[in-house]
Amino acid sequence: MRYARMAAFGFAFLGLFSPSAKAQSLPPVNLGATSFLDGAPPAGPGWYFNEYVQYYHADRFRDLNGATVPFPGPRLDVWTSLTQVIKLWDIELPGKCKPALDLLLPVANTNLSFAAPGPFPRDNGTGLGDLVIGPALQFDPIMNACGKPIFVHRLEAQFVVPTGKYSNNAEVNPGSGFFSFDPYWAGTLFLGPKAEVSFRAHYLWNAVNDSPSTLIPGVLSTRAGEAFHMNFAASYELIEKKLRVGVNGYFLQQTTDSQINGNDTPGRERVLGIGPGMIVSFSEKAHLFFNYYFESDVRNRPEGDRLTLRFVYKF
Q1: pTM for the full model?
Q2: Quick one: 300 exposed, middle or buried, by C-beta within 10 A (0-12, 13-18, 19+)?
Q3: Gap between the Cα atoms of 179 and 70, Å rounded
Q4: Which of 54, 55, 84, 192 is the most exposed place for a label (fewest CB within 10 A)?
């Protein structure tokens, strides 16, 4: 099937590190790492290897109203490498779906600096991020009367285990320091033989951090708020089985307040990223994604640009 040859399979991603002036930011989440043809595996059941390289740069920080935080010459640069292994079993379950398991481990290099000294957020350098474990169900495609796929989708329960490098003396860490649950629903709608639109919608829940940042005195525990975040994309096949181009984006909105010592604190995070992207397919089993994003409509977090390269290979 066409959808099987042109997609690139990826279940989870730990994204960028989000320092802010409050005691507990949201943890890293998937912001734009997955995009086109997200609901379908590229070549059926088997083992998949994904390698992501992402660069994020920001020199603006926004407060809870979207105004620029007057930090002196802020600069945040984050390089992230993520290694992901996915197994999709050829076992048909009730509901016309197959089981899958996703394992992902990031490594990040963070560099946060300011043009003057002060009690500003601090980075924790390079280290392993948190392990992601994701059992999933990949549903069979819904076909039209001509036997062509119309819609294909997947559900994953995503558990983020706090195994990464973390220090309460830094606000920008490779690891979050607390457990998170971030399930999602991903799908692809085929608009014809060449065009498609895709989405991946998450809802994030976070546990308490009992070793919070020391930037604010007197804080014994923090808890990041819940959040909705999603990726969305549309692409068109320019060269059959070789090249797709399109537009990709992401959106995040924190839905509940973060807490300090069990009390709600004002300031919810929000960000919208939109930009161009493409897929270069070397074969049915090997694909390379390019995605670029410009951020806007930002609240209570950095505002910058994001570049993601992603290589997918099926063994």
Answers
A1: 0.90
A2: buried
A3: 32
A4: 192
Residues with Cβ within 8 Å of residue 145, at least 6 apart in sequence: none
Tell which residue, 112, 219, 224, 111, has the closest CA to residue 160: 224
- Classify each residue of 135-144 as buried b or exposed e, where b means 16 or more C-beta atoms within 10 Å of its C-beta: ebbbbebeee
Q: Which of 303, 274, 271, 227 is nearest to 35 (CA)?
A: 274
Above 50 in pLDDT, residue 158? yes
Longest dimension (CA), the chain: 66
Helix (H, G, I), strand (E, B) or coil at 4: helix
Q: Which H or E run contains 8?
A: none
- For residue 219, give the amino acid letter: V
Ordered DSSP codes for 25-41 = PPPP--SSSS-TTTTS-
Which of 296, 247, 302 is CA-nearest to residue 272? Answer: 296
The answer to whether the beta carbons of residues 281 and 242 sit under 8 Å apart is yes
Whole-number pLDDT of residue 154 = 98
Which tens digits make up the pLDDT trace of 56-91?
A: 999 999 999 999 988 899 999 999 999 999 999 999
**Residue 242 CA to its chain's centroid (Å):** 25
Identify the CA nearest to 297 among candidates 67, 18, 56: 67
Q: For 4-25, what is the mean pLDDT?
A: 40
**Number of separate helices (H) and strands (E) present in the chain:** 1, 20
In whole angstroms, what is the distance from residue 40 CA to residue 28 CA? 24
Could you give the 3-state DSSP secondary structure of residue 2? helix
Tokens 């989440």, residue?
Answer: 29
